[in-house]
Amino acid sequence: MSSVDPLVSVIVLTYNQENYIRQCIDSILSQETDYPFEVILGEDLGTDSTREICRQYAAKDNRIILPDREKNLGVTMNWIRCVQQARGKYVMSVGGDDYWHNPEKIQIQVEFMEKHPECVICHTDKNILYTGTNKLVRDFNRTKGIIPPEGRIQKEVVAGREHIAAGTMCIRRDMIEEKLPFEIYEREQFPCEDWPTIVILSAYGDVRYIPVSTLTYRIGQESILNQRDYDKIRRYWKQSGNMARVMHDLFPKELGPYEDEPYFTQYVNISLLRAAYANNDYESARNFASMDPSKGLASIMAKRKITFQLFRGWKLVKSFFYK
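Below the sequence we write its predicted structure tokens.
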């Protein structure tokens, strides 16, 4: 590692991504900047060759750090440990199965942050790559007519209207150190790191959007939100509901009681309901449907086993209910 402190710390969160990790790392190393940056490879002790690939990169480039791991930490604690090692003024993160297609990503966002000291996070547009069909949607926000909110957007984030991809964000590290209660992240077992970070930091400064696409985000491969393990899926969504409750407890005046927040109550339960349908778990589906305030078709069909099975076998489930 160079004796000159890096201006940016790039964190790569990766686990069993041997087919993608090289492209991810190469996309970071090819960034064109006027200042040094470091790359922290948060490889979380997977079972494939990802760590060996990371080790090879670290041996060749002194900008790369590969932290030691004694055990698997999970995505949130993995990110926290990497942030605690970071030295840059700014922190960026990217998943090991995604990559930055824009070689000026770091330069664009750092210049923006330097000009806007009131901004705690800036983010950009992204491309979406569907791995099943290899379909690429460029400039996803622009293509879909999405205009992300800006400013003190805490309420918009909690209501699910923020449209921020973690791999596009640039965050001030001093704000991370001052404002993020990592002990709560750990104690409450938050299932992800980006959402609570946005919620908390957006209470203390502006979140701004740069309409330039920088990240290619893959959808379709197995990931934290797309996996086959039913128990992990159930645990993730239940922990997500608890995480939202914690945010409301941290900001009671701004956000009010969790029970008054319709978005998360509905989103968590409908996600659990989807998982129950996919895994032929009628009893759980009936339970989750009873807690779904939207009372949509999926919830209605879960009231009886026969209608549950009919809906489950409906040929439009995959194209409509699970999309």
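DSSP finds 16 helices and nine strands in the chain.
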